[in-house]
Design brief:
This protein is of the alpha/beta class and about 280 residues long. It folds into 2 domains: about 140 residues, Leucine Dehydrogenase, chain A, domain 1 (Rossmann fold); about 140 residues, Rossmann fold (3-Layer(aba) Sandwich). Helix content is about 35%, strand content about 20%. The strands form 2 sheets. The chain has a 6-stranded mixed beta sheet, with helices on both faces. A 6-stranded parallel beta sheet has the order 9-8-7-10-11-12, with helices on both faces.
């Protein structure tokens, strides 16, 4: 068994995607989504992984940071980033890993190189901090983190600078967000835009250059209101489904030892999503 711990998890297509891939490869495996509402339940869930026979577990919002003290060990990426997005069970030990950033880097590189980019990221939670570090490692020239909480934004900015040496600063989230001049990549690393509510991201689009690459972490719908708005202004886009595929392929191989086939994952996630659940997400 494999699965996911998070809150909320209902709209995430990851279970249907993994189950379809397991079936394609003839693996008698299953993927279970688990809605974990508080830290006490998170501790119980992590402690239960070994006796219940799980082979691994994905960790999603809001538990990517809180899960770390509950694990038996973590890899170097988790130590550098300060968050874990999946676990493996190895010799009876629950080991934390993080490939959130690796998934987004691979997805972005399909559209544009990261070398020299000036990146603005909205949000700096568990996924955002991983993405910020990996994007800096991939060659970005400068990062700006836009968050409501100064403590969080400054802590993650300092972690990016310490881990990578790339300049990273914090900007207060207030009103329609204005991008610094010269921004070439704009990323939404928040929950805004996720089904079923599909909220707008409050951007001052007059500050976004037409060629600025827009990136969203949301997986459902594939085309969020944020990405639709970006496309209408001539911006190339990278959707969260592409990121999910890239990171899920790595996790699948880590868990099963079976080489991942991208076409199988792409087909599985497309079938899992079906028609877009927001009118703005129709392609």
């Amino acid at each position: 068994m494999t699965g996911m711990l998070g809150h909320p998890v209902a709209e995430n297509p990851i279970d249907r995607m993994f189950d379809a891939v397991y079936s394609h490869h003839g693996l008698h495996w299953q993927f279970w989504k688990n809605d974990i509402a508080n830290e006490a339940d998170l501790a119980c869930a992590i402690a239960a992984l070994r006796p219940l026979g799980y082979r691994g577990m994905c960790i999603t919002v809001p538990w990517k940071v809180a899960v770390i003290p509950l694990l038996d060990a973590v890899d170097e990426d988790v130590r550098a980033i300060g968050a874990a997005n999946y676990t493996t069970i190895e010799d009876g030990r629950v080991i934390g890993h993080n490939n959130d950033g690796k998934g987004v880097v691979k997805a972005i590189k399909k559209v544009a190189p990261l070398q020299g980019q000036r990146v603005v990221m909205l949000g700096a939670g568990g996924a955002g901090r991983a993405m910020a570090v990996e994007i800096a490692w991939a060659g970005a020239a400068h990062l700006t983190l836009v968050t409501r909480r100064e403590e969080q934004g400054c802590e993650v900015a300092a972690r990016v600078r310490d881990a990578t040496g790339v300049p990273c600063e914090w900007q207060q989230w207030s009103g329609p967000i204005r991008l610094p001049k010269g921004t070439t990549v704009l990323m939404n690393a928040t929950h805004l835009g996720c089904a079923p509510h599909c909220e707008e991201v409050p951007i001052d689009w007059d500050t976004v250059a037409p060629g600025c690459l827009a990136v969203d972490v949301i997986t459902n719908p594939r085309l969020t209101p944020f990405l639709v708005a970006a496309k209408t202004r001539g911006c190339p886009v990278v959707d969260g489904v592409e990121m999910l595929v890239q990171l899920a392929m790595q996790i699948f191989t880590q868990w099963t030892g079976v080489p991942a086939e991208e076409a199988v994952f792409q087909r599985a996630v497309a079938e899992a999503l079906g028609e877009g659940s927001c009118s703005s997400s129709s392609r």
